[in-house]
């Protein structure tokens, strides 16, 4: 759900590849750097969109719509135009005159995000229908989804992808409980299999969700936990502010035996929210150990996700401290980032906070300034100095990915800030 930090993530993947299997890389010469990509005029953000174009555009449009801003027609058209003939959305394709081919990274996460954005905007029923149809067609037998279905980086069902697809299906008017795989499994069954239950150790991890098992063990993952909370509550990232505010509580134990997955998923979501609330108490924000580091640092992206999840669960007070921390500490993290600014706007909206006065920043104006001016906007008032385009290193990035895959490292997860395996 958070910002796709492709450049940083791939730099980290390079470190991991070298550390894990130096022999696999030593004899492989990377190709020469490619030219920076041309940023489409309808796209939000100035940085290389190769790994997050559809994702960041979806969150930018969803955030604008949520606060009553009518996105530029060319921005919406750009997103619609990214769809492949089979209904899926790639992470990004520069040439939309050609259909998606085997080199495109077909992304269930990007597709699910686009479904949420285009459903909210309205008027794109056929596009949404095709996307939903594709998502259903690539559902795994266990009921869940991988991030790159059928692709070279298909790592099997994971909690994050399954959760965001559930949210997309819900937003499009589908019933996830009735979206069964060929084996008769529902998405809820797949999602619940990733929750750390009443016997998990340490006890503080109970209620959290894992991304995927690691050596057969479930490890608490903040990103998966926040995404699963929203999915279990039947909502997407655009959370309608609630008038209720109750304290978050731990996972109910013992869990009800034989509970129907559709009925039990809401209770599981509340348990996940309780875990997030406890995790936020220590520092007022979440932390993560990034590749190559030996000490945890502030995890701004997942802190935003946690705030949205807690607000959706009706626990705004439990999110209040983290919200204040974000007001004071998120400016640099979100600068020039459509997805970062978009998720902050959605967090502000979910908690009843004014996004136009968020820690001294007008998030809406900052988001609008990263792309084409919204309809009816005063373009002169939103002009800002754009960030310098960063070299894409496109060929080098794909070389790193390929080398990582050859070395047996799960690099695909690192391509997305919202799919990383960092623990709380």
Automatic annotation (TrEMBL):
Entry coiled-coil feature ranges: none
Presence of the UniProt keyword Transmembrane helix in the record: yes
Annotated signal peptide: 1-26
Chain segments annotated as transmembrane: 397-415
InterPro entries (alphabetical): Terpenoid_cyclase/PrenylTrfase
Keywords assigned by UniProt, alphabetized: Membrane, Signal, Transmembrane, Transmembrane helix
Renumbered residue ranges of the record's region Disordered: 371-391
Protein name listed in UniProt: Squalene cyclase C-terminal domain-containing protein
Organism from which the protein derives: Streptomyces virginiae
């Amino acid at each position: 759900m958070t910002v796709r930090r492709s450049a940083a993530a791939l730099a980290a993947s390079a470190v991991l590849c070298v550390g894990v299997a130096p022999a696999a890389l030593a004899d492989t010469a990377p190709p020469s750097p490619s030219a920076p990509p041309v940023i489409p005029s309808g796209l939000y953000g100035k940085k290389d969109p190769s790994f997050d174009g559809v994702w960041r555009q979806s969150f930018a449009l969803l955030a604008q719509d949520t606060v009553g801003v009518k996105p530029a027609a060319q921005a919406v058209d750009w997103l619609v135009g990214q769809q492949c003939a089979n209904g899926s959305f790639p992470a990004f394709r520069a040439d939309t005159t050609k259909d998606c081919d085997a080199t495109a990274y077909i992304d269930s996460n990007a597709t699910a995000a686009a479904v949420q954005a285009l459903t909210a905007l309205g008027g794109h029923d056929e596009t949404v229908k095709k996307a939903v149809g594709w998502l259903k067609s690539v559902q795994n037998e266990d009921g869940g989804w991988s991030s790159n279905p059928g692709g070279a980086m298909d790592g099997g069902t994971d909690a994050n992808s399954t959760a965001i697809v559930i949210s997309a299906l819900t937003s499009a008017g589908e019933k996830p409980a009735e979206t069964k795989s060929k084996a008769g499994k529902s998405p809820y069954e797949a999602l619940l299999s990733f929750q750390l239950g009443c016997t998990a150790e340490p006890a503080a991890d109970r209620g959290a969700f894992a991304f995927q098992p690691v050596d057969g063990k479930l490890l608490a993952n903040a990103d998966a936990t926040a995404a699963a909370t929203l999915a279990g509550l039947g909502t997407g990232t655009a959370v309608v502010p609630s008038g209720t505010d109750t304290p978050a509580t731990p996972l109910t134990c013992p869990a009800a035996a034989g509970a129907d997955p559709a009925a039990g998923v809401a209770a599981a979501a509340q348990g996940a929210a309780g875990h997030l609330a406890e995790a936020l108490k220590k520092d007022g924000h979440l932390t993560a150990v990034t590749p190559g580091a030996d000490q945890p640092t502030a995890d701004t992206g997942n802190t935003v996700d946690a705030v949205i999840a807690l607000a959706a669960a009706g626990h705004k007070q439990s999110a209040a401290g983290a919200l204040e921390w974000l007001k004071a500490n998120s400016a640099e993290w979100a600068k020039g980032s459509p997805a970062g600014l978009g998720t902050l706007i959605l967090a502000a909206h979910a908690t009843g906070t004014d996004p136009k006065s968020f820690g001294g920043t007008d998030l809406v104006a900052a988001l609008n300034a990263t792309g084409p001016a919204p309809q009816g906007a005063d373009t002169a008032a939103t002009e800002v100095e754009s960030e310098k385009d960063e070299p894409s290193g496109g060929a080098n990035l794909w070389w790193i990915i390929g080398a990582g895959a050859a070395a047996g490292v799960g690099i695909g997860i690192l391509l997305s800030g919202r799919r990383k395996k960092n623990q709380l």
